[in-house]
Structures are given as C-alpha cells and as structure tokens.
C-alpha cells in the first residue's frame, strides 16, 4: 500500500467532509451553553484529562506491576502514547484531532488495578451479577461515577465521544439486534435506554483511529518493555519477519549501536511503518467508499481505519511473541496469581462487610441495596483502585498479602 501525500491533512483548518464536526455535534445528555473558546470535542478532551479516573491511570498496571521499575509503561503512559498516535493519524486524514484524542484518552478508564489480571478476577466475582467489562466500566465512570459537577453526575460528554468510547472496536450489535461479541454489557444497554449510542453502527473515523492507535502503541511499547525487562531478546524478535527487517535496517545503518539506542531505533521505525500502513489502507477504503459525511462512515459495512493484510499478519505474530514470552512467562503468571488473589479477597471482604469501604462515597447508602446492586457498587470501588491502593487495602484486612515482585 502507498500513501497519497497530496491529500494528507498536515495543514491547519482543513477538514474532510466525513470528519465529525464539533459544531454540529448531537449534543450532550444534559444541555449546556457552548464555550466561547473551545469546540465541543475540545471541552470533552479537557474534561477527561481533569478527572480522578485519568490521574489514577498513573498507578495502574499495563504489563509490569509498579515495583518492577520506574521506566515501564503504566496505563497512563500507555494512554498518552495512544493519544499521540491517534492525533497524528487524525491530522493526516483531515478528521477531528480533538475527538480522536479524547476517545484515546478515555478508552482505558474502566481498567482495574493489575491490568487484565484484575479484570479477569473481578469479572469472575461479578459473573453472577452480569460480569465486568472495562469498556462498560469506562462508560459508567464518565456518565455516573465521576462527581465533579453540581448539575449532573459524570462528565456529560458529547454523544460522539461516548459513542467512540463504547464502539471504537466496532458495532456491539448486528443489524438484527444480536451481540457481535456476545451479550452487550448491561451498563451499556441501560445507558442507551436514555441516550441511544446506536450500537449496531460503526463509530466515527476518529474513534476507529483511536482503536488502531491502541494496537500500534501497545505492540510497540510491550516489545520495548519486554526487551528492557529481559523477557525478550533480539534473537526472539528475529522470529517476526517484520521486526527482523527493522533490526537489519538499523544494524546496516548503525553497526555499533548500544542496545538501548538500538531498541529505540527499532521502535521508532515500527511505529512509523504501522502508522503509514494505516494511512494508506484508510485512504484506499475512503477512496472506494467516497463518504460525504460522518454518517456515511457509521453506515459503512466495514472498519475504515485498519491495517493491511500484511500488517495484520505482523500484528498476529507480535501478539504471539508477546503472549508466549511475556504475558504467559512463569514469573508473570506467578505475579498474576497474586494480583488475582488480592482482587478476589477484597471483593469477598467488601461484600461481607460494605463498611470496610471507608472512603467509598456510597458506603452510607449501600446497606439498603439488594445483592446485585451491592455487588456492582463493590465492583465500582475495586475497579477504581490503583495497584498501590489495592495492595495497601489488602494488607489492612489480611494477615498475608502476595508479593507482586
């Protein structure tokens, strides 16, 4: 695939016909006066950045638990990297950068402490009550749990940002109303009863750009962190032809480069090639579709922002490399088991005695709730914890807390 450089949007003020338009947004659940200085999507982005949920990402695990080292990615640094890639793609495609960045910044709000391990453990605990889904939890946070405004719960984000949060990975329902990836989480269905996010359509191109940026960012930085940790070696990277080619390119140009700079040069090239691949594929699909509005993007029967077939295969190979050498490494699995125990123990303790959630703002009202409602509030409390807070809470309640090192 090749990029048409004549249509790249590197200037300011340019906007494609199919871009989401903040001046004609579908609005907010609760009507607000417009801003004199910012577009509606800029306001959304700014609200997201100033939340408690955003600050908590600093101490939530990406892959490596906090004590492993100061230079490994956290949910916060991952989120910032995703937002940077999303904004670059949006600018190149002449779509709204602020909406793409906002969706990227909010996409991981619902993640629990301890990464996917914490999510799996909390889902198991909540399965009798509807389960746990981090996307649905992100929606709960920005529509209900953040308490920053006098007139409403949540952030009162625009329809377009909420749509992107919920559907950035594609429609949740088929045209006939069946779940595309299993049952739609109940919190999403509940919200759509009062503010329909049109779950059977695709999201805006801005949201699609945020989704593919997530893949680009974590494929790259998990390799970087894996090499830094010693779980990955350069010889292991040779098993992925794409990475082998990048390493040869760097060695040929810089034959005596030290390992740290060598790794950085590989990562720079990986991000560039993946971004350029997405731009080329997206341009090709836009050329074929000829959309004249953002609605045409939503009503298309495919994802517009995507990797090429060749890059998809590279993506699969990288994920396989990461799973076998990092995510499923015995050391990581041991730590994951300890993290899962912490989440499970805390859930059971809070269900047995909700008063233990001393800092939770619902604790004074939880006694009057039925069991499913109580379980969901306990899930909200646990999902909002950072890694460090969860470990400290566990040490206060139990004689032994697993060592996550």
From TrEMBL:
Supply the InterPro entries for this chain: dGTPase (IPR006261), dGTPase-like (IPR050135), dNTPase_2 (IPR023023), HD/PDEase_dom (IPR003607), HD_domain (IPR006674), PHydrolase_assoc_dom (IPR026875)
Top-level taxon of origin: Bacteria
Q: Does the keyword Hydrolase apply?
A: yes
- For this UniProt record, give its keywords in alphabetical order, as a comma-separated list: Hydrolase
Q: Which GO terms describe its molecular function?
A: dGTPase activity
SMART domains xref list = HDc
Quote the Pfam families the UniProt record gives: HD (PF01966), HD_assoc (PF13286)
Q: Where is the HD domain?
A: 75-219
**UniProt cross-references to PANTHER family, sorted A to Z:** DEOXYGUANOSINETRIPHOSPHATE TRIPHOSPHOHYDROLASE-LIKE PROTEIN, DEOXYNUCLEOSIDE TRIPHOSPHATE TRIPHOSPHOHYDROLASE
Family listed: Belongs to the dGTPase family. Type 2 subfamily.
Q: What is this protein called?
A: Deoxyguanosinetriphosphate triphosphohydrolase-like protein
């Amino acid at each position: 695939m090749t990029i048409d450089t004549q249509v790249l949007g590197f200037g300011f003020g340019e906007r494609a016909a199919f871009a989401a338009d903040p001046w004609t947004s579908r609005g907010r659940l609760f009507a607000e006066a417009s801003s004199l200085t910012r577009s509606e999507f800029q306001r959304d982005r700014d609200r997201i950045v100033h939340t408690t949920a955003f600050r908590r990402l600093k101490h939530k695990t990406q892959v490596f638990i906090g004590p492993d080292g100061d230079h490994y990615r956290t949910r916060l640094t991952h989120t910032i990297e995703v937002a940077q890639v999303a904004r670059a793609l949006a600018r190149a495609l002449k779509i709204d950068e602020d909406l793409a960045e906002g969706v990227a910044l909010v996409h991981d709000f619902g993640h629990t402490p301890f990464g996917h391990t914490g999510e799996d453990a909390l889902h198991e605990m909540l399965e009798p009550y509807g389960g746990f889904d981090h996307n649905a939890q992100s929606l709960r946070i920005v529509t209900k749990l953040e308490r920053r405004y006098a007139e409403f719960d949540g952030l009162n984000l625009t329809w377009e940002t909420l749509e992107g949060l919920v559907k950035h990975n594609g429609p949740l329902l088929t045209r006939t109303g069946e779940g595309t990836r299993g049952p739609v989480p109940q919190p999403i269905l509940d919200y759509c009863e009062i503010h329909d996010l049109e779950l059977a359509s695709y999201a805006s191109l801005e949201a699609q750009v945020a989704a593919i940026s997530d893949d680009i960012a974590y494929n790259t930085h998990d390799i970087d962190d894996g090499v830094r940790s010693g779980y990955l070696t350069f010889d292991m990277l040779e098993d992925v032809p794409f990475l082998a080619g990048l390493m040869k390119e760097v060695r040929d140009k810089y034959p005596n480069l030290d390992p740290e700079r060598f790794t950085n040069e590989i990562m720079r090239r990986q991000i560039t090639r993946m971004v350029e691949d997405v731009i080329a594929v997206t341009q090709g699909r836009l050329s074929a579709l000829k959309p004249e509005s953002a609605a045409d993007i939503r009503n298309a029967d495919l994802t517009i922002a995507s990797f090429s077939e060749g890059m998809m295969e590279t993506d699969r190979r990288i994920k396989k490399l990461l799973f076998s050498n990092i995510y499923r490494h015995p050391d990581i699995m041991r730590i994951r088991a300890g993290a899962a125990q912490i989440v499970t123990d805390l859930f059971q303790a809070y269900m047995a005695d909700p008063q233990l959630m001393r800092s939770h703002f619902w604790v004074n009202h939880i006694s009057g709730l039925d069991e499913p409602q109580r379980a969901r509030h306990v899930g909200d409390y646990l999902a909002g914890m950072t890694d460090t807070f969860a470990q400290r809470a566990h040490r206060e309640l139990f004689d032994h807390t697993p060592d996550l090192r």
